[in-house]
User: Fold this.
Amino acid sequence: MPEPPLILRVAVPSPLRRVFDYLPPKKCQITDWPVGIRLRVPFGRTRMIGVLVGVATQSDIPRDRLKAVIEVLDHEPLLPKDILALLEWSSGYYHHPLGEVIETALPVALRQGRPAEIRGESTWGLTGTGRQGDVATLQHAPRQAGLIQALREAAAGLKAEQLDRTFQAWRPAMSRLVEKGWVELVQAPCLGREEAARESPPRLNADQAAAVTAVTETLGSYQAFVLDGITGSGKTEVYLALAEQVLAGGGQVLVLVPEIGLAPQIVARFQQRFALPIAVLHSGLSDQERLCAWLMARSGEAPIVIGTRSAVFTPLLTPGLIIVDEEHDPSFKQQEGFRYSARDIAVIRARNHRIPIVLGTATPSLESTYNIQQARYRQLRLTRRAGSAQLPRISLLDVRGQTLHGGLSAPLLKAMEAHLVRGEQVLLFLNRRGYAPTLLCHECGWVADCKRCDAHLILHRRRQRLCCHHCGAERPVERQCPACGSADLVSVGQGTERVESVLRERFPSIGIARVDRDTTRRKGSLQNLLDGIQDGTSQLLIGTQMLAKGHHFPNVTLVGILEAEQGLYSSDFRAGERMAQLIMQVAGRAGRAEQPGQVLVQTHHPDHPLLWSLIQGDYPGIAGALLEERRQAELPPCSAMALLRAEAAQEVPAMHFLEQVRDEALALKIRGAQILGPVPAPMERRAGRYRVQLLMQAGKRQALHRLLDQLLPLIEKLPSARKVRWSLDVDPVDTY
Ligand code: ADP
Ligand code: ZN
Ligand code: ZN
Assistant:
């Protein structure tokens, strides 16, 4: 009896929530089909690159309708089993098609089918000492002696691949030899590395030492920690001390940062401390660089791996520790396509590997605060600023009824002047989320709106254009009010640009750096601005969220916060949390060195309890109160939430689709799951399309997943689904 044909199950990057069956290529000699290899397959009228995720002997599709694989792109699995398992888990949790999830995890070069190899591979070779040294001194380290022997016989040095063939677990021994100066690694071109570590570690203070001990004790097992310490309290030093231990044991360290802008800083700290290759993974790299870094992480040649969101999926040979810096940052959540949280997946990954994970932050997310309360995560606190720096003093400036100059009150301007005269730096922070200058008619109150969105247009003075920040529409600034004909059009609200122009007039001799999305669009421009701030060329810094994140400005002694209360009246349930985090983060920029800092918060609501807690610096108090509100309102993290968004050119089809989804969902009668809506999205129109949403919530996460598991196949069959664009967001970070 002939053997049944082998069926290859392939995950293809397609929006369909299933894998596809193929036959092996015709006249194929391959008998062994490891999962994790790439295959080029026919798909509809095109060809696609998919990843083999399983083999079977049967398919639901009749055999004569199955197509054959066109080409086998890898002979060894590109994705190791642990990563494939993590991707499958993520696909299930976020209810997103596996093929697209896998695509997210692959560097672009590999998605395009390029070979998984790098030009200029790493090679280990002997140093002078290595060539002449007495091998007898290595008699207690037989592995090291063996490696030296092998290297002495290989004039051109040895590559990882060659070493793998002869030696098992040779990497720790090789690292020892590198440390001793017998061996050097001629590394791949993509890896950053200093010649020698230039910096020796400081003596850790008691809090830091306790944190390091607590994590060290769990090495080799899973535990999640929240390293909760104000800015400047020495969290990065704790990461470095932990990394040292893990690296010494031959483990790799994966560090995730929320934004590409924060990567160089943390990379530099690791470089100064360790003379080891570092693989850096973020969107600012060329495809080739990214591929190289990814492969170096996978092979273990880069013991330290630092990256943004998607780096959470980087394969590692010997994972030892995961660090997530600024864990509260919403940038860890992808907001389109595969809407995953890199922080949450990092926790799952640590659990799978049985290694510890450290979530560092000055302002723990309510999710982490909740997990600490539930004893799922352990809290480690750093209560003092490292070195001599003191905490800044925060006070409120009541601006009700005051004349403002470019949004700045007289007391704030006076304080700024005092600090500037002393040669110190001043930072002004604007919360730009949902906020910017618009054109207003002083006669009748008309406001310039976008014709395609429910949004005010934003005035860009320099270019004299009105722009929509949601859909990108632009038009010239009106001279006359379209409603009443008055020429008295004024701009209301302060954008960073407006504040900058007011301050240039006021302080003509002071260097000003404005840091926002517009001034940092070009590659390298953020770094230029930051350099100017570090060397003192810029004394006055104006910025948005970007400036609030993790940068060190030791000479900033005054921070002014304009329009603090944006977050108090937003429709989004996380707005209060975000506002508190932002203000604490910005305040943390001040007075890091010897000078104590001062923080002035302008507000129209000086009596608001949230602001009161903030000026006492009581973030834990605020987090506790906000969490209690969430508990009472049964909102995340005290419940599980998923948002189904739909949009269409007209409102009716979008609404109709979600009404059908709601009916299907209700008919499933899942206990403990609530279906709310459909309702128009807080921003009802965007880029000319109507947006509606259906909220699904459950006290227990399992109930929500049971609902989604059963609901999604039904949604895919709905004819009304073809008339709209829809997406599912599990654990949404905002509800816009
Ligand atoms: P964070 O990451 O919490 O903002 P860092 O680790 O960057 O804090 O530390 C802030 C500053 O204090 C850095 O310049 C760092 O070198 C210094 N520092 C940290 N820990 C110590 C210590 N134990 N002794 C002396 N200086 C320290
Ligand atoms: Zn008017
Ligand atoms: Zn618009």
The chain has a mean pLDDT of 86. The pocket of zinc ion (ligand 2) is lined by residues 441, 443-444, 446, 481, 483-484, 486 (CB under 6 Å).
